[in-house]
Fold each of these.
Amino acid sequence: MDEQRHPVDGMDDVEAVTRAVLTASRLLVALSARSLGSVEDRVTLPQFRLLVVLSTHGAAKLVVLAERLAVSPSTAMRMVDRLIGVGLVDRQINEENRRETVLRLTPEGIRIVDEVTARRRQEVAGIVERLAPEQRAALIAALTAFTEAGGEPDVSSPPAELHPLGWSGGR
C-alpha cells in the first residue's frame, strides 16, 4: 500500500487528517459557542474574540486591533462601539502619545473573558478525561505539531499570558 494512503478508506493522509481536523473543529466551535451561553445576550463570538485579543495583548489602537483580528478597521470599530456600549471595553488616551486613543478591557470585560475561559476549559477537560492515557499523549503530540505548523503560540508561551480560547491575537 502507498504510504500516502489512509488504510481505512483509501484517502490520502492529507485528506484524512484534513477531514479529522475539520470534524474536531466543529466540536471546538460548538464548545466555544456553548461557553458563551451565559453572556450571549451581551457578546457574540466575533466580539468575544476581540475581547480575547485585548486580554492577550493588552491595550491597543484600533488599527492594531483590526490587524490582529484580520478585519477592516471599520468592522473593528463597530465591534468596539458595541462592546463599549455594554461596558466591556473602554477608550483611553494613550499615555505615550496623547493624540492617540487606545482600547482596553474594563474590569467587567476581564471578568467575562475569565468566566468564559473557565467554562470552556471545564468542557474540554471533560472530553479529555474520557480518553485513554495513550490517546491523550497522542493528542498532545498531534495538536502541538498542528499548532506549530500553523504558527500558533503555545498557551503557556511568553511573553503574553494567552487564554486557551481557540485564537491567539494574530489569528
Note: Confidence is low (pLDDT under 50) at residues 158-171.
Amino acid sequence: MTTEAPAGGPRRTSGATKAAILDAARERFAADGYERATIRAIARDAGIDPSMVMRYYGNKEGLFAAASEIDLRIPRPETLPAVGMGAALVEHFLDRWENDDVLTALLRVGVTNAAGAERVRAVFTGQMVPVVAGICPDPEDAPRRAALVSSQILGMAIARYVLCFPPAVTMSREDIVDWLGPTVQRYLTAERP
C-alpha cells in the first residue's frame, strides 16, 4: 500500500510512512518535550500531511506511545554473572542511556508529563519485573525489588543525563558501577529485611 508522497518525492509505502512519522516524533519529543511537540511539526518533519499522523496513531498520546516503545534489552537472568549481577545491570543501563536518544527523551518527558510518566512506568514494570523475578530469592517480592532497582537506575539517569548534576556527569562509569552495583545487587539478592 502506498501513501502520499513527501514533498516532491516518490510515494511511500505505509510502512515507510509510519517509520518516517515515528523517527520524526522521537526527534521532536526529544527536542521539544511532550507538551510543546505538535502533530503539525512532526508531520512537517516527516514530510507528510498531519492527517496521516492522525490516521495511523489517532492522537498525540497514541503517537507518543508508539514512538516510546522501547526494548530495554535487559539481559536474561541466566546470562548475568552469579557474582556482580548488580554491577552488570548498572553497566548495561549506562550503555543504554548513552547510546539511545529515544530512551533519554522518554526519561525527559517522563519527568514533565503524566503520559510520559506512565510510559516510563509501563516500560520499566513490564521489562524489569520479569528479570528480577528470575533472580530474587522470592519471586513474590519481584515488583518491590524491581521498583528499588529502577529507582537507582532512573535516579542516576535523571541526575546524569537530564538534570546534568556536575558530580553525576563527571563521575567515571567505573565509579558509578562501583557505587551503584552493590546497592542494585542487594536489591536483587539480599534476604528481605
Note: The domain at 77-189 is CATH 1.10.357 (Tetracycline Repressor; domain 2).
Amino acid sequence: MTSAPLFLALRYLRPTRSFISVITVISMLGVMLGVGVLVFVMSVFSGWQREFRQMLIGFEPHALVKPFSTPEGDPSAPKPADWRELRKVLAQRPEVVSAVPVAEGTIVVENNGNLQGLPVIGMMDEPDNALLIKLKKHIAEDAKGNTKVVDQKTGKVTYRKGEFNLSDDCIVISDKFAKELGAKVGDTLVVHAEKSVTQFIRQVREIPEDAEEKKRAEALDNVTVLSKDLKLVATLRADTAGQKAYVPMNVAQEFFNLESDVSGIELELKEPEDVEKVMDRIYHSGAIPDTWVYSTWIQEHAMHLESVENQHTMMWFILLFIMLVASICVMNTTITVTVKKRREIGILTALGTRAWQIIAIFVSQAGIVALVGVVAGLAGGFFVLSIRNWLRDQISSLTGRDIFPQDIYFLSSIPAHTDPAELLAICTTAVALCLLAALIPSWFAARVDPAVALRDGG
C-alpha cells in the first residue's frame, strides 16, 4: 500500500465533467495566482531595494569626515586638526580609494527671475577624485553623447555637449532642476549664498517702513548679497544622481565663508556596503582625531533605508493572505472530495486501510494541486516580470497615471531582482499551507466509521 495513496490521489484528480473537477481547477488557479503575485511583487520590491542602495552608493559620498561642531566664539573649544594632514593620513588607508576635501551648504540659484534653493557640494577638479569620476557617469545625455536641450518656448530640441568640469566658475545641476529653473547647458546662472540672502531679508525688514525715502534708499544701498555668475556646464540625471549641485571648491568656500578651510573630507571606499564596519575600524585605529567625526551614506539615509526594510516585511505579511485564501480553496476542494468519496473511504477502511493512508490520499491530492499551482505561478510570475515595463507603459497610457513615478522611486524603469532564498520561501510556504489546509478535513475523513460510511454512501 505504499503507492496506493498516490495512485488514488491521481485517480481522483482525473478530469471529469463534475463539480469536483471545477473546484480543483479553481484551487490550482488560486495557488497559481498567489505564487505569481508573490514572485512578481517581491522581485520588483527586492530589485527596487537593491537599485536604491546601489543608486545611493553611485552618487553619494561613502563617508564624510568633518570637524566636530562647537559653539561659535567659544575660546575653550579645541581647535580641529588641520584637514590637509588628516587627508594625507586617510588617503593612505588601504580601505580608502580617495579622500577629497569638500565644502557643503545651500545656495540660491536664479535664472530669469526664478529663484530656488539647492544643496551644493564644492570640490576640487582632481584626476584622483573618485567622487567626481563616478558623478561624471550620470551626465544627462542622448545616444549621441550630447546633452539634450529642449527650448521651453518653441519646443525645439538641440544638443550640446555637457562636460563635468569644475576647474572654472561653473556649476553642475540635475536635469530636473534645470527644467524647473528653465535653464539649459551653456546658460549663465546667478548664484547667491543662502546666508547672505537670509541676512539681506533680515536687514530689509529692520529698515523702518516710515523712514524717509532718501534714508531708506541709503539703508538699502548698504544691504548686499554675495552673488556670483556661474556657467551651467552639464546636467546630471536626477533619477540616478539626486538633486545636488556641484561647484568648484573656491566658489563654495567663498559662499560659505570658509576661507581656506573645508566642511569635511569625503571618502570613497573599496567596500561601500560595509561602510559602518570600515569606518569604525578606521576611527578606532586613531586615524580620525577626536576633534573630527564621521557620517556614512547609510546614516545619512537611515530613515529611507529603514522605511524600505519595513515595507519589505509588511509586503510579505500582506501578500501571505493571498496564499491563505488559496489554501482555503484547497481545503474546500478536500472537504468536497472527502464527502463525495465517503463510501469509498468506508470500503478502504473495511478492507484494513489504516487511517494515515486515508489521510495520505487526500494530502497527496492537495500536494499535487499545490505543486501544479506553484509551477504555473512561477511561470506566470516570471512572464509578467519580463514584460513589466511594457505593462507599465500600457497602464499609464490607458489610465493617464504613472504607476512607478520617477520622482518617488528615482528610477526610470521598473527594476527586478529574484532572490533564490526568497523564491524558495514562497514555494515552500505555498505548498506547506496547502498541505496543512488539506490535513484537517483528511483527518476527519479517516476517522469515519466504515459501517456508517457505507450506509450513508450507499
Note: The mean pLDDT is 77.
